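Changelog-adjacent note: as of this version, every example in the card shows the full chain rather than a window. The one below runs 316 residues end to end.
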Amino acid sequence: MTGAALDEAAAPRVPDRRPPRQGRLALTLRRESTWLGWWFVAPAVIVTVALVVYPLVLGFETSIHAQAPTLTAPSKLVGAANYSDVLKDPNTVSATLHTLTYVGIALALEIGGGLAIAVVLHRAFRGRGIVLAILIMPWALPSVVSGVLWQRIFAPDNGLLNSILVNLHIIHQPEVWMANGWAIPFITLVHVWGVLPLVALILLAGLQSIPDEVYSASAVDGANAVRQFWHITLPLLRPALAVAITVGLVQAITIFDEIYVLNGTALNTASVLMQVYNSAFVDADFAHGTALAFLVALATGVFAVISLLASRRSTV
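Full-length structure tokens:
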């Protein structure tokens, strides 16, 4: 035996730590799958950053700086001063009160009307599919289109509402509905007309998830329809009610299109989003406008989280 062979035999053997061929193949496939997933996700991430994250960062930066006299002039950092200013602004306070009125009327009509419609449509009858199709139509229409349609009804000169009331001798001359105390209720009615179908469908889905055996067992125990509704339907419908309230709440807080189409930027019906529009685009005060927009987004998020927590608690 040669010296080289003796040295090789005497040297300690180093174990081969390389994974088997199948293991290496699986590791390679896993890495390629991971990279392929990143490649598929990358366009969505880029679009989200460009259209959502970057505008949010830029808007927040605008909200903490003073309004510059020109677009190219440097602006001074003022911190939370813009937020304090918009909270003290009388127009913001008035718009907030209007928004609370919109929310109160809208939720009352949407939940009450949606529950009544859901109970009626829960039972099978001839033409039920046609009724459902007609019910969805107002929700399918864009809110701007709904506002234009209802604008012809509330028109002061030849509107349908004035024509009917004058012919019935309820009023003696045409009314300018958007300039009196009926403006906010009528605008809320237009808003409810578009959101009510969605709320009704949510509650209808909740009713259909309740087993019929529960009602049969309660009927054997002597419960009538009213007791079944209060003690069975409403408790089991709480998750659907929480979702419907959340949807109606967010839609009412962010009401804008109906107000703009029916009454423009008038202050007597302005909501908080309309006040954002007035500050940022009518008054060209982007600093206070973006500050108010962030406050509205924060308030909407808080209400949504509260509704979500209430929904989780109702399902426990």
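Structural remarks: The mean pLDDT is 83.
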